[in-house]
Q: What sequence folds into this?
């Protein structure tokens, strides 16, 4: 074992884990190679049948213990997350601890409901009297490749329904933020999960590639570029994959909106977690009559935000970025917008002497779709705001994107808001709210267009970890059915009359 609890590895190299807010190395983890991944797969496959045999109630007991573990150990949980991500304590509490506590209980309570056998009634005459069943069976060994921005929610969180369905799971967290996953592996063992059912393998991109080669299904969260490579590798093996990829989520403010609420939401959900959220507010479209007032409110609120090292609760509002290359991406998008005529009423000038990965909360105005900040995923604490003539232009601009993950519209006319929501090309849309639909574990959450394949949460969020089996049971049997050999004219006419009786009656327009 090394200092952070990760399993020992035969790999010659280790990966330093850096606190992005301070620049300090806080741990080292193994850079696992294909052989380590293969051995983990063997362990996972060996124990999976016994885990599945526990049934929903047996597995649910372990998951409910994990739910309590998170609540009882929330301070350690938060410290670990903050140390490897640089996010504010409150960000970790709201988006990681609260989600984790809810998710373990939700899947323990609902797995059976979503996956229980379904009895099917048939309209096929030849199957009358037979019992038809559809069942969901665990796929076996699931691979989860997690991102660096939410080391629990989008890593361990995607593992929970897979475990609830009766699978073993191998999680490959981001090499930037592996410590939370390692901690949760230890926690699950303490909660009674059999050794090998949930395993963490740490490493860089090659480790993720090796994982795709040995599992029965892969769940990936990350960039669209990498997601395409994962999908290609999965296709070559003919295994299913689920992908939650990039987003450039629009936020539409109509002239009749509650501007104070809209401004609060725009600021919070663009800056929350340092803007490093796939479903964060990435671009805003405001109808012309209220544009200036809305911008004034936003600028005032962003100027009041406190940014710095997250030393404890209440210390800051916005933490650091987590992934070093992301700092350059944010800087590039802001500089590109400024060069093309955008105004920067607040932010936009990072402190070059800072030890951590800090970019100041930034508002951009006078923007358009020639600018990277309005068309490419920024994934940082920026809020570009564009003036539009009317709702039709807002919808047109919101849909002018290869992404389609989440969207928002603000208006006091709820009927109008729903109509606009139905026209926005995104997998989830809010009216007078933002992002909160992610916390509704009953609702499917997935992307349209290049934002992904499949969904998390809801029935689809657990059924994707299963394979469907149809069972037909004959209860009342003849020695020989009428359609079987030998063919005779009599049986031919009988079957014809049956077809006519069921399908040939009634008038046709």
A:
């Amino acid at each position: 074992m090394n200092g952070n609890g990760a399993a020992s590895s035969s790999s010659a190299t280790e990966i330093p884990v850096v606190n992005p807010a301070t620049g300090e190395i806080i741990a080292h983890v193994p850079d696992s190679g294909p052989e380590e991944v293969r051995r983990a797969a063997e362990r996972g496959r060996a124990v999976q049948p016994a885990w599945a045999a526990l049934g929903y109630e047996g597995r649910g007991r372990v998951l409910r213990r994990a739910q309590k573990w998170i609540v009882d150990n929330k301070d350690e949980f938060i410290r670990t997350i903050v140390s490897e991500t640089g996010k504010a304590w409150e960000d970790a509490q709201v988006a990681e601890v609260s989600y984790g506590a809810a998710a373990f209980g939700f899947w323990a309570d609902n797995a059976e409901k979503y996956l229980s056998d379904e009895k099917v009634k048939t309209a096929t005459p030849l199957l009358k009297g037979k019992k038809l069943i559809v069942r969901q069976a665990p796929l076996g060994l699931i691979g989860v490749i997690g991102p660096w921005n939410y080391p629990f929610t989008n890593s361990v969180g995607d593992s929970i329904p897979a475990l609830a369905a009766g699978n073993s799971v191998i999680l490959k967290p981001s090499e930037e933020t592996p410590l939370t996953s390692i901690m949760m592996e230890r926690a699950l063992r303490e909660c009674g999960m059999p050794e090998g059912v949930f395993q963490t393998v740490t490493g860089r991109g090659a480790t993720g590639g090796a994982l795709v080669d040995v599992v029965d299904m892969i769940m990936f969260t990350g960039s669209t570029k990498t997601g395409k490579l994962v999908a290609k590798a999965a296709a070559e093996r003919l295994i299913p994959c689920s992908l939650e990829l990039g987003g450039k989520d629009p936020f539409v403010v109509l002239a009749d909106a509650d501007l104070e609420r809209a401004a609060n939401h725009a600021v919070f959900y663009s800056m929350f977690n340092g803007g490093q959220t796939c479903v964060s507010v990435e671009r805003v479209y405001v109808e012309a009559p209220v544009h200036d007032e809305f911008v004034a409110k936003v600028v005032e609120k962003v100027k009041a935000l406190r940014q710095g090292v997250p030393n404890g609760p209440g210390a800051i509002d916005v933490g650091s970025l987590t992934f070093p290359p992301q700092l350059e991406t944010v800087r590039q998008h802001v500089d590109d917008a400024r060069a093309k005529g955008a105004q920067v009423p607040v932010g936009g000038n990072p402190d070059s002497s800072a030890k951590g990965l800090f970019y100041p909360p930034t508002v951009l105005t006078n923007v358009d779709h020639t600018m990277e900040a309005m068309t490419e995923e920024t994934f940082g604490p920026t809020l570009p705001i564009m003036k539009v003539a009317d709702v039709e232009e807002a919808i047109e601009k919101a849909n002018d994107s290869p992404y389609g993950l989440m969207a928002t519209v603000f208006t006091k006319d709820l009927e109008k808001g729903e109509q606009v929501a139905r026209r926005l090309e995104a997998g989830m849309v809010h009216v007078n709210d933002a992002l909160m639909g992610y916390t509704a574990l009953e609702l499917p959450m997935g992307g349209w267009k290049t934002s992904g394949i499949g969904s998390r949460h809801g029935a689809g969020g657990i059924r994707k970890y299963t394979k469907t089996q149809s069972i037909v049971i004959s209860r009342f049997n003849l020695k020989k059915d009428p359609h079987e050999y030998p063919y005779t004219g009599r049986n031919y006419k009988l079957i014809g009359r049956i077809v006519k009786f069921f399908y040939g009656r009634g008038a046709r327009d």
Residues 170 and 199 are 5 Å apart (CA to CA). The first strand starts at residue 14 and ends at 18.
